[in-house]
Amino acid sequence: MNDELNLGVLSDTQFKALEAFDKTMIGTPKYIGVAYFWSYSYRYYLRDASPSKRREIHQKLLDAELDVSQESKKHDSIIESLSKNKT
Question: Is 5 a domain residue?
Answer without folding.
Answer: no
